[in-house]
Specification:
Length: 329
């Protein structure tokens, strides 16, 4: 559900990564063959024409998103820092470079004729790949920071924000608020909570967010606060109160998201599965069945044999020392 409202950010990242990768490849060619670097690292196979490298730009442009996708850079993760992003960009760029080297060598070996091969077609300098890696990491990370900064400035200015109401001011509701406040780049603004504890006169809420009313006040609060989405974060024993919220939201075309009790999921070590569209909570799943148990048994045997072989010299030495110091009766 969060991905749907992060789509603009992901699209900007992908477009910027493709352009940055192509620009980095062109810059790597220019630095390697058209600057003073040639006097430091002499050319061994001559000066290849730029058109040979130009034909590789679409391929290189696709490598970067592929490598970044493998590193999960297009998936939102809670609490991700700039340092995490940088190392993910670095590893993703290395994966892209390795893919580029493997791809060009494969095509050159099996699909390029001898004439074109002699002309260096689909052959990329090793130093170009190194420069490409440096420029890619620099440009893509800078582009991602620029895109994130642009959207943050836009949302901080109050543009295109989604107004969120949290139903439930308990521990689960506060956890939802924490997550949304940690990721302001998603473009959410929390208007407050609704909870039946408001009947006791407690209107403080949490982290400066007000407690706007009881569950029965959903319609009034949504109208007054112009709510776009409702996050239902109620404990299991209060889920019956969710029915009125869902019924009202469906009439007013307000998005509703139900947050499961994460603490109970953790305590039960449960996981959510899907049975043809039907959500199922699996508890106490036993993974070692069938082929998994056979593989586990083979791994145990191989590990034990390896340990015995590696420690056998020491065991033999200890036995000899014992025999020498204590010959026995």
């Amino acid at each position: 559900m969060l991905k749907r409202y992060n789509r603009l950010l992901v699209a900007l990242h992908i477009a910027a990564d493709v352009l940055s990768g192509m620009l980095a490849f062109a810059l790597a060619y220019w630095v390697r063959f058209d600057t003073a670097l040639t006097s430091v690292v002499p050319l061994t196979k001559g000066h290849p024409p730029f058109r040979q490298y130009l034909s590789l730009l679409p391929f290189v442009g696709l490598l970067i998103p592929a490598g970044f996708h493998l590193q999960g850079l297009y998936r939102l993760r809670r609490g991700r820092t700039r340092v995490d992003d940088f190392f993910a960009v670095l590893v993703g760029s290395i994966v892209a470079v390795l893919g580029g080297i493997a791809g060009t060598l494969y095509v050159q070996t099996y699909y390029v004729g001898d004439t074109l091969k002699a002309q260096g077609y689909f052959e990329v300098s090793q130093l170009v790949w190194v420069l490409f890696l440096v420029f890619t990491v620099t440009l893509t990370f800078a582009a991602r920071e620029a895109a994130r900064g642009y959207l943050r400035r836009r949302w901080r200015a109050g543009k295109s924000l989604r107004r969120v109401l949290i139903a439930g001011a308990g521990d689960l509701g506060r956890t939802v608020a924490d997550r949304l406040l940690e990721h302001r780049e998603l473009g959410f603004t929390i208007v407050g909570f609704i909870d039946d504890q408001a009947a006791a006169g407690d209107g403080i809420g949490y982290r400066g967010l007000p407690l706007l009313g009881q569950m029965s006040d959903t319609a009034t609060v949504c109208t007054d606060e112009h709510v776009d989405e409702i996050y239902v974060a109620l404990p299991i024993d209060e889920h019956v109160k969710m029915l009125g919220v869902v019924e009202y939201a469906s009439r007013e075309c307000i998005d509703v998201h139900v947050v499961p009790d994460l603490l109970q999921f953790i305590a039960l070590r449960a996981r959510l599965e899907d049975l043809d569209g039907l959500p199922i909570i699996s508890i106490h799943d036993v993974p070692l069945r069938g082929m998994n148990s056979v593989i586990k048994r083979l791994i145990d045997i191989a590990t034990s044999l390896t340990a015995i072989i590696l420690t056998s010299p020491f065991t033999l030495l200890i036995a000899l020392l014992i025999k020498r110091s204590s010959p026995g009766p």
